[in-house]
Design brief:
Elements (H helix, E strand, L loop, with lengths): L1 H10 L2 H6 L3 H30 L8 H27 L3 H5 L2 H26 L8 H23 L4
Helix pairs in contact: 3-4, 3-7, 4-6, 6-7
C-alpha cells in the first residue's frame, strides 16, 4: 500500500505533471535515455573486450580504464537522469510492474560490478594482463548492463 501511495505522490508531483504536458519533453527524454544507455553499453563493451585481451592490447588496461571513466560517468548520468524523467509521469504504471523491479535490481548490480571492475583495474600493474577473476567480473558487468537494458525495454510490453 505504501508503495502505491508513494508512486501516486510521485506521479502527481509538479515536475511529473509538467513533463506530461507535451510530447516534446517525452521524446527528448527518450532520445537522451537511449543515447546515454547506448554510449554506456559501448564503453562497457570496449573495456570488457580489452580486459579479455581481444582488442586494443597495445593500450595498458589501467590507462584505458582511466580514459573511459569520465565518459562512463557522463553516459550513466545522462541515462539515469533521462530515465527518471521518463519514469515520473508514469510512476504508477511502471513502478508496480515486476519487470521494473528487475530492471532496477540489474541496474544497481551493474553499477556495483562496474565500480568493482574499475577499482580492481586501477590496482593492476600497468603491464600486467587481467587475471581470470577480473575477466569474469568484466563479463558479469557486461551481462548485467545488457540485462538492465533488456528489462527496461520490456517495461512497455509487460
Amino acid at each position: 500500500m505504501w508503495l502505491e501511495q508513494s508512486l501516486f505522490f510521485i506521479q502527481n508531483s509538479a515536475l511529473a505533471r509538467f513533463l506530461e504536458t507535451g510530447r516534446e519533453f517525452t521524446i527528448a527524454a527518450q532520445i537522451a535515455h537511449i543515447l546515454g544507455f547506448t554510449l554506456l553499453l559501448a564503453l562497457v563493451l570496449a573495456l570488457t573486450l580489452r580486459v579479455q585481451g581481444w582488442t586494443l592490447t597495445a593500450l595498458p588496461l589501467t590507462r584505458l580504464s582511466r580514459a573511459l571513466q569520465r565518459p562512463y560517468y557522463l553516459a550513466l548520468t545522462l541515462a539515469l537522469g533521462a530515465g527518471l524523467l521518463l519514469f515520473l509521469p508514469r510512476a504508477l504504471a511502471y513502478g508496480l510492474k515486476d519487470i521494473f523491479a528487475w530492471k532496477l535490481l540489474l541496474l544497481a548490480l551493474a553499477i556495483l560490478a562496474q565500480a568493482l571492475l574499475q577499482g580492481r583495474l586501477r590496482a593492476l600493474d600497468e603491464a600486467a594482463p587481467a587475471p581470470a577473476a577480473l575477466k569474469g567480473l568484466a563479463f558479469l558487468s557486461l551481462f548485467l548492463w545488457f540485462g538492465s537494458a533488456a528489462a527496461g525495454r520490456a517495461i512497455g510490453f509487460v
